[in-house]
Amino acid sequence: MSSGATSAPLHLPVLRNQVLAALNPQDGETFIDGTFGAGGYTRALLEAADCKVFALDRDPDAVALGRSLEDEFQGRLTIQQRRFSEMETAFSEVGLSAVDGVALDVGVSSMQLDQADRGFSFTIDGPLDMRMSGEGQTAANFVNTASQADLADVIWRYGEEPASRRIARAVVRERELQPLQRTTQLAKIVARAVGAKGRSGKRHPATRVFQALRIFINDELNELQLGLGAAERLLVEGGRLCVVTFHSLEDRIVKRFLLERSGGAARGSRHAPEEQALGASRQSTFSLESKGAIRPSPEEIEKNPRSRSARLRFGLRTAAPPWTVGGASSYAGGAS
């Protein structure tokens, strides 16, 4: 883990104004920022109204950096080191059971990408780690011990990388010579395996592989599904759910969740067949003011190129009881 600073850096989150408009904070309301990060959404909420924010982040560095913000808005902000899928438990531990809004900014943060020792970036040399919480198996452990078939499956499933089998063969071949321990070491192997013909535009050939490993190591897709269900149970009637995603796998989960919960046609999914089958007969728990995703403006993308793939979807909680879904989804992943 990297050494923590004493204060939270200034941070302008992606789609800040759009998220704030959708959450529409009012005096006296309570919100959950399930992915605190550098505190951008939390600060925006606290400055917009005399409300309270309960913030969560599994990254201990983010929590440490947020303590200064907690001091600045004393009594109105509480930060805990927790996964956002645990928001119900975390919220109940402070004596609360309902919330007016939930914000989720899914995926890796700019702060994590910029820290070499976290191992998220293929452009900065660092240990092949990728754990958001600092616990559990590292990416290095997985790429050095997984079978070629499992490597290819993870790279395809979570990165949608067409050359997944070729890359997996190259990784296995290279690790027999020496263990893979560094980010740039893996990035070079991937680039050689993909070759010039496999490169797409300006995207680095290792982009999808690093995405896949990060999602797998941190069990991100299952975490997202569990978090959406928890938000549904916590939100009061009229409560707002806002989710910002950065790639198609995340966006499809959020889109499907809100479509089903708002009475849209439930289409079959190998990931949640029971939930899909029951969806058509259940009451709508969300209404959608905008069925499409909201995207950043050209001006925002110019200022922050990392925002170019961001998508915002949001829903308004109805009075209908939450859906009851047994068990976790079938998304596999490593626990962090």
Q: What spatial form do the alpha-carbon principal axes imply?
A: globular
What's the number of extended β-strand segments? Answer: 7
CATH topology of the largest domain: Rossmann fold
Class based on secondary structure composition and strand pairing: alpha/beta
Number of helices: 15
Give the integer mean of the pLDDT values: 86
**What is the second-level CATH architecture of the largest domain?**
3-Layer(aba) Sandwich
Major β-sheet profile: 7 strands, mixed
Tell me the name of the CATH class of the largest domain.
Alpha Beta
Please give the alpha-carbon distance between the first and last residues.
Answer: 13 Å
Explain this structure.
With 336 residues, this protein is α/β, with parallel strands linked by helices. The protein folds into 2 domains: 16-111 and 220-317, 3-Layer(aba) Sandwich (Rossmann fold); 120-218, DNA polymerase, domain 1, CATH 1.10.150.170. Helix content is 41%, strand content 12%. It has 15 helices and 7 strands. The chain has helices spanning 16-23, 40-48, 60-65, 67-72, 87-93, 110-113, 139-145, 148-159, 164-175, 183-194, 207-218, 220-234, 248-261, 273-279, 298-303, and strands spanning 30-33, 52-56, 77-80, 99-105, 235-245, 286-287, 311-317. The chain has a 7-stranded mixed sheet, with helices on both faces. Helix 1 (16-23) packs across helix 2 and helix 9 packs across helix 10 (183-194). Mean pLDDT is 86; it is low at 1-10 and 326-336.
